[in-house]
Design goal:
Shape of chain A: elongated
Oligomer: heterodimer
Radius of gyration of chain A: 21 Å
Shape of chain B: globular
CATH superfamily of the largest domain in chain A: Alpha-helical ferredoxin
Number of domains of chain B: 2
Largest interface: A-B, 78 and 83 residues
CATH class of the largest domain in chain B: Alpha Beta
CATH superfamily of the largest domain in chain B: FAD/NAD(P)-binding domain
CATH class of the largest domain in chain A: Mainly Alpha
Helix content of chain A: 25-40%
Number of strands of chain A: 7
Radius of gyration of chain B: 24 Å
Number of helices of chain B: 17
Order of helices and strands of chain A: EEHEEEEEHHHHHHH
CATH topology of the largest domain in chain A: Fumarate Reductase Iron-sulfur Protein, Chain B, domain 2
Largest sheet of chain B: 5 strands, mixed
Largest sheet of chain A: 5 strands, mixed
Distance between the termini of chain A: 66 Å
Distance between the termini of chain B: 38 Å
Helix content of chain B: 25-40%
Strand order of the largest sheet of chain A: 2-1-5-3-4
Number of strands of chain B: 23
CATH topology of the largest domain in chain B: FAD/NAD(P)-binding domain
Strand content of chain B: 15-25%
CATH architecture of the largest domain in chain B: 3-Layer(bba) Sandwich
Chain lengths: 254, 643
């Protein structure tokens, strides 16, 4: 594993606060090891900025192993960068060429206002879950787990959907800033499992309403979301959401 | 170095036979009637498995809950990264498991340094956790007939681990998070994301609130309650490099410690043997490769020192399969602490591999030759893929390089059987407390403990406190609230105003190296005596020379880190003192002076069969040791052997 180094030009979005206009600043960085993760490259940039008496670039990150969903960078116009099924924190610098210019922006979507630099507010996604993304069961004496058999094929579909890490890349990648992939992942997981059946109609109607209410756009089936999704959630879950939604509207009790 | 208090800590473990303690205790605890519950306010800090499950369950009971996390959403807490699974004594495979066996394995795995009654309760509650999670829609792996699937894990001879692919922590946390979001909708829980707890408010000796910083606006806030529940995780990031998330920190626990809560067994740290090694100075964290890989992978180093040949060019006769050599009966499946120390021994002696020499091989060549690449891909495909993503090496063609890394911390704030600290009204759950894993945690037990504490233990025990404690009304401008807030503000201002020459990260890295070198996989008296003044010096330098750009207004990630590192600087000294005082080897705490002829850990039960609860005096002052003796009435402590 020999290590090469890169010389890079970084165009980074800087915005001092929610009210600030923001603009791109250009930084040059040398000696970037190809073994570094993308976020470690930003760490190195920040150490340099601090040494130069400048404020470091703010960016969200936490687990740095691709599962918490906190990192959220638009890299050269692609959510989480060029690799499929990869979060920005798992992207490595060997993916880039010596002398390359890399443009780094925050998620761009009106339901995700910029807090500072590359940090956005994604609480809209929590509010969508609050509108029904759960099974209404209190803690207590639940029946034995094996009393609810789930065919392993169905469980696999539910797990594929449940793998969503809630990062918002689907929204950032969509020209309409639609959150359909995110919403459908939860609707589809719970609609596939028997535990979620009792309230499936109410859930899909409420979650879609909450999504609209937060200002997310409509889905026009271009599948950019699926291409950007680091958890590789399939747009087939959007199809399931649409079926669930149609059922709920057509066969409403009232 | 420290003083010893004459009193003994009272664990408040109820009387009666082990099997009946929890039931009897629950009956004896006072209740709060449903109509009165809405009169009580509870603060929950942290939203991992313990925090989310506790906040949701308390909301369901009818309490008014305020929940806090520093991330932008409660779903991001680091429980989400747990891979392997969650243990329960269901005995679905009919392989001889029972509540008693899970209890026994956990006590033994913890090297006889945990409380029997707590561990037994954990094993009892384990089955309810699985049922609860299934009812929430957690997609556990299933057999073809639709029943729940199990797999094996380290430290047990039965299959009792439930799992969701390699993402069990994620799915359990999302289950708890969704329960929490449901309570937010009912209005019983108010959620405060991007808030960091900076201090505990203690009024008339009881925990009555917290001071938090709103990380977006920079403003400090006071929140008042009748009880405070701390679910803020472990302190592995004292070592800078660990498998923890970057944000994991000891601040909330340490601030409570400074306000009087005892910190128990901080020297019990778990070093996980199979992590991807450090590749350079810029390294920001370490990634775990599941321990399950050791089922088929063989661990080795070259027999020749500083051998620079690639692995494939080293003939069989020149390879040292040191685990198989030293532990013929357990071989590559030796427990975590043993496997980690053996890797350290070889690399220290100059036999390590890779650019840095700080790695050993985990080789699948023989398994692939035996079973074929397809079989290995089916078993470990996702892990091989992750390894390749990080290192750009193909582990089907060449052996993985691995090295031990700090992973979990068994120590934490001291709690009694009710999970209440010695400060009335302050409860501590999950990794943040010390209670259930003794000196070493078994795989798939952390998820079990977090959810046990949050779903089932706290919701029973907190009623008793709220029903019986005298809790006069407190307002937010109470002098103690103001004083605590001013102290937090002053500290932040000092960090910003120091305006020195070194970044926060540079200090954190230096502290981490000290801790790893002197207080890592193996410790000794001389080293610990040496490192304590070094930590103090570094702390002094930090406060003189740290540079925190920007101001306290608005989002300032350097300031967030600075506060956390400042607390790690104080905490690390206590960790070293605890390690120095415990003159024995047990579990994750290996003192080189206390080993058998074969280099195995030698416990000193006559002198150290106790929990060490440390009381804070002042920064740099001698802490006070309060002991809680451990009584083993049901199991007999023996020496673990893996030869």
């Amino acid at each position: 594993m020999s290590s090469d180094t890169l010389k890079l030009t970084l165009r980074v979005w800087r915005q001092s606060g929610p009210e600030d206009q923001g603009d791109f600043r250009t930084y040059r960085l040398e000696g970037v090891s190809t073994h570094m993760s993308f976020l470690e490259m930003l760490d190195v940039l920040n150490e340099k900025l601090i040494a130069d008496g400048e404020e470091p670039v703010a960016f969200d990150h936490d687990c740095r192993e691709g599962i918490c969903g906190m990192c959220s960078l638009m890299i050269n116009g692609q959510a989480h960068g060029p690799d499929r099924g990869t979060t920005a924190c798992q992207l490595h610098m060997r993916r880039f060429r010596d002398g390359e210019t890399i443009t780094i922006e925050p998620w761009r979507a009106s339901p995700f206002p910029v807090v500072r630099d590359l940090v956005v507010n994604r609480s809209a996604l929590d509010r969508v879950i609050q509108s029904g993304g759960y099974v209404s069961v209190n803690t207590g004496n639940a029946q034995d787990g094996n009393c609810i058999p789930v065919a392993s094929a169905k469980q696999e579909v539910a797990m594929d959907a449940a793998a969503c890490i809630g990062c918002g890349a689907c929204v950032a990648a969509c020209k309409n800033a639609s959150a359909m992939l995110f919403v459908s992942a939860k609707v589809s997981q719970l609609a596939t499992l028997p535990q979620g059946h009792a309230e499936s109609s109410k859930r899909v109607v409420n979650m879609v309403a909450a999504m609209d209410n937060e200002g997310f756009g409509s889905c026009t089936n271009t599948s950019e979301c699926e291409a950007a999704c680091p958890a590789e959630v399939s747009v087939s879950h959007i199809a399931r959401l649409n079926r669930e939604y149609s059922k709920a509207i057509l066969f409403a009790d009232s | 170095m420290f003083r010893v208090a004459s009193d003994e800590l009272n664990s408040r473990v109820p009387d009666g036979p082990l099997q009946e303690k929890w039931d009897r205790h629950r009956f004896n605890l006072k209740l709060v009637n449903p109509a009165n519950k809405r009169r009580f306010n509870v603060i929950v800090v942290g939203t991992g498995l313990a925090g989310s499950s506790a906040a949701a369950s308390l909301g369901e009971l009818g309490y008014n809950v305020k929940a806090f996390c520093f991330q932008d959403s409660p779903r991001r807490a680091h429980s989400i990264a747990a891979q392997g699974g969650i243990n329960a004594a269901k005995n679905y495979p009919n392989d001889g498991d029972s509540v008693y066996r899970l209890f026994y394995d956990t006590i033994k795995g913890g090297d006889y340094r945990a409380r029997e009654a707590n561990v037994y309760r954990l094993a009892q509650v384990s089955n309810s956790i699985i049922d609860q999670c299934v009812s929430q829609g957690v997609p556990f792996a299933r057999e073809y007939g639709g029943t729940l699937a199990n797999r094996s894990f380290g430290g047990a001879q039965v299959s009792r681990t439930f799992y969701c692919r390699g993402q069990t922590g994620q799915q359990l946390l999302l289950g708890a998070y969704q329960a929490l979001m449901r309570q937010v909708t009912t209005g019983k829980v108010r959620m405060f994301p991007r808030r960091e707890m900076l201090d505990l408010i203690v009024i008339d000796g009881a925990a009555r609130g917290i001071v938090v910083r709103n990380l977006e606006s920079g403003k400090l806030e006071v929140h008042i309650a009748d009880a405070v529940v701390l679910c803020t995780g472990g302190y592995g990031n004292a070592y800078y490099l660990s498998t923890n998330a970057k944000g994991c920190n000891v601040t909330a626990a340490w601030r409570c410690h400074r306000r009087g809560a005892y910190f128990a067994n901080p020297c019990y740290t778990q070093i996980h043997p199979t992590c991807i090694p450090v590749s350079g100075d810029y390294q920001s964290k370490l990634t775990l490769m599941s321990e399950s890989l050791r089922n088929d992978g063989r661990v080795w180093v070259p027999q020749q020192k500083n051998d620079v040949r690639v692995a494939a060019d080293i003939p069989e006769s020149e390879r040292d399969y040191y685990l198989e050599r030293r532990y013929p009966s357990f071989g590559n499946l030796a427990p975590r602490d043993i496997a980690s120390r053996a890797a350290k021994e070889r690399t220290d002696a100059g036999f390590g591999v890779g650019e840095t020499g700080l790695a050993v091989y985990l080789d699948f060549r023989d398994a692939i030759a035996r079973d074929g690449e397809d079989v290995i891909r089916r078993k470990y495909g996702n892990l091989f893929h992750m390894y390749e993503k990080i290192t750009a090496d193909n582990p089907y063609r060449m052996p993985m390089r691995i090295f031990p890394a700090v992973h979990y911390t068994m120590g934490g704030l001291w709690v009694d059987y009710n999970l209440m600290s010695n400060l009335p009204g302050l409860y501590v759950l999950g990794e943040a407390n010390f209670s259930d894993h003794g000196a070493n945690r078994l795989g798939a037990s952390a998820l079990m403990q977090g959810l046990s504490d949050g779903y089932f233990v706290l919701p029973s025990t907190i009623n008793d406190y709220l029903a019986t404690a005298s809790l006069p009304r407190v307002v937010e401008d109470h002098p103690e609230c103001t004083a605590t807030m001013v102290a937090a503000e002053t500290r932040l201002k000092k960090l910003v105003d120091t305006n020195g020459s070194r970044s926060v990260d540079s200090f954190h890295r230096e502290l981490g190296l000290l801790m790893w070198d002197y207080c890592g996989m193996a410790r000794n008296r001389e080293g610990l005596q040496e490192v304590i003044p070094k930590i103090r010096d570094l702390r002094e330098q930090f406060w003189k020379d740290v540079r925190v750009p920007g101001s306290g207004k608005g989002l300032n990630q350097s300031l967030e880190k600075a506060g956390r590192v400042a607390d790690f600087m104080e905490f690390s000294e206590l960790l070293a003192i605890d390690a120095l005082h415990r003159e024995e080897s047990c579990g994750g705490h290996f003192r080189e002076e206390y080993q058998t002829e074969d280099g195995e850990a030698a416990r000193q039960d006559d002198d150290y069969s106790y929990v060490a609860g440390w009381e804070f005096e002042d920064v740099g002052e001698e802490p006070v040791l309060h002991r809680e003796p451990l009584n083993f009435e049901n199991v007999t402590p023996t020496t673990r052997s893996y030869k």
